[in-house]
Write a structure and sequence with these properties.
This protein is of the alpha/beta class. It is 40% helix and 29% strand. It contains 10 helices and 8 strands. Helix 2 runs parallel beside helix 5.
Length: 349
């Protein structure tokens, strides 16, 4: 469970967001979210394979694709290799596994250029994992680049020894889309833990006195595609790591003098001092004021990492005082509770 020291609280002073009646302000909380993908706790080692080589039976389809998409023969191959390396490096850095092995291609092929193939058979996965002594297999199953080029001839003024003369400058631009697709195989559980695709667009441009010179300025795109491949692998590796994100919460700043004083305390980071004043107002005979105070008590409980108590206060605010913000807040808190249960599982890995 995140503690108070793990929460970044930013109250908005000069740039405060207020409700239509200026009764609330926002506070930002930096909360820990579970990783999108949960790897089983028994998985201690991982192998990373490249399954993007086209099956010889489908080479003709791949050749036609490259003719129409302007791809070089080695572009996808080198980009895929970079992507696998990027993922392996990222998995080694996060300390989730005792060992990460980059296994290369291993004669694995795909039957669907530019698309996800059918998953590997469990017999194949078992064989690889036994041979290389890994518990799970991270497989790059799709790496495809698709480029479109356009030309334009632009009138320009050319400087010559005889002065400026009218001329034509040729400009070329190219949009390259890089698609990667990944699967994680868990042979012990006979489960595909994750299947995920990532897309990235790259734009290149060049200019010259003729179309050939203009297109020649685009030759550096191979290195750019390899760089994007590395980044795609690194980004995919982040899917198994819990992450922090900022969320916003409304809290009430008007109702009585105590609310106004508590607002100033909150703006200086003295949330405990603000809570003392809110607590006093939870028994206010004015039902609106009491409901706001109960709701604010839920906010301070969440800030302090006490989600169960936060839910109780927000339930009281809604059930007894029909507070307008409390019902949705209850849902948010319960979602955080569910996320924390997933976090506990991930921390046990």
């Amino acid at each position: 469970m995140p503690t108070k020291t793990h929460l970044l609280l930013i109250t908005l002073a000069a740039a405060t967001f207020v409700s239509c009646k200026a009764t609330t302000e926002l506070v930002y909380l930096n909360v820990l979210k579970p990783a999108p993908v949960t790897i089983p706790a028994y998985v201690k080692s991982a192998g990373v394979v490249n399954r993007t080589t086209i099956n010889p039976q489908n080479k003709s389809i791949d050749v036609v694709d490259r003719i129409f998409s302007l791809e070089g023969a080695q572009l996808d191959k080198e980009g895929a290799q970079s992507s696998v390396g990027g993922l392996a490096d990222e998995l080694r850095k996060n300390n989730r596994f005792n060992e990460v092995k980059a296994l290369g291609e291993l004669d694995l092929t795909t039957n669907a250029p530019g698309l996800f193939s059918a998953p590997l058979s469990w017999e194949t996965v078992d064989k690889i994992c036994r041979e290389y002594q890994v518990d799970a297999l991270f497989s790059l199953e799709l790496f495809d680049t698709d480029s479109k080029i356009s030309y334009a001839a632009i009138p320009v003024s050319l400087k010559t020894p005889l002065g400026n003369v009218p001329g034509i400058e040729h400009r070329a631009s190219m949009l390259t889309s890089v698609k990667t697709g990944w699967r994680i195989y868990d042979p012990a559980g006979r489960n595909i833990v994750d299947e995920f695709a990532l897309n990235r667009d790259l734009t290149f441009s060049g200019r010259g006195i003729n179309p050939v010179a203009a297109a020649g300025a685009l030759i550096n795109r191979k290195e750019a595609v390899k760089t994007v491949g590395i980044q795609a692998g690194q980004n995919y590796g982040m899917r198994i790591i819990p992450y922090r994100t900022r969320v916003t919460r409304d809290y009430y700043v008007k109702g009585t003098d105590n609310f106004r004083i508590a607002r100033r305390k909150a703006q200086t980071g003295n949330w405990d001092g603000a809570a003392v004043l809110w607590k006093k107002e939870t028994t206010n005979p004015d039902r609106t004021v009491a409901g706001r105070a109960c709701y604010n008590m839920a906010i301070i409980c969440e800030i302090n990492g006490e989600l169960d108590l936060a839910i109780k206060w927000s339930q009281k605010a809604y059930e007894e005082y029909n507070n307008r913000l409390a019902l949705n807040y209850i849902r948010l808190l319960k979602n955080r509770q569910a996320g924390n249960e997933v976090l506990k599982q991930q921390e046990m890995e």
